[in-house]
Amino acid sequence: MTEPQPPRLLDQVRQVIRLKHMSLKTEKSYVYYAKDFILFHNKRHSKDMGLPDIRSYLPHLAIDKNVAASTQNVAWNALLFLYQKVLQIDLPFLDGIEPAKRPQRLSVVFTRSEVLFTIN
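^ thats the sequence. predicted structure below, dont judge the formating
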């Protein structure tokens, strides 16, 4: 008699998220970035990867995929969740990762004549 196979990694991620009563949107995001991380590293299992692999993935999101800084933070949190909560592997603090650039927001100040024009 054969032992039942353990759930696949992404199913384990879903299972832990649901046990922690996290939102469906968080589940979708975390599963997406866990899968994207694995595909980025040619389908290697996350247990076989570590800090250097994460250090190469996060800047890839910022530089090659041109994601927003907040999106890069979601991916980072997804990987932390994957390693700490699902695989139960502690990761030391990551430094030296190029963050996505936050867009510059210039304040718009109208001149007196522009304000009067919009009122009329």
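Helices lie at 9-19, 24-40, 51-63, 69-86, 112-119.
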